[in-house]
Amino acid sequence: MVSLLTIITLVLSFQQASEPSPIIFQILDEETEEPLGGATAYILELDRGITADEDGIAAFEELPAGSYTFSFRFVGYEEITQTVEIPFTGDQPFQILMEHEHEHLDEVTVSTTRTTRSIEDAPTRVEAITLEEIEEKGNMLSTIHL
Question: Cys-Cys crosslink for 21: which of 8, 87, 97, 134, Cβ 3.0 to 4.6 Å?
Answer without folding.
Answer: 87
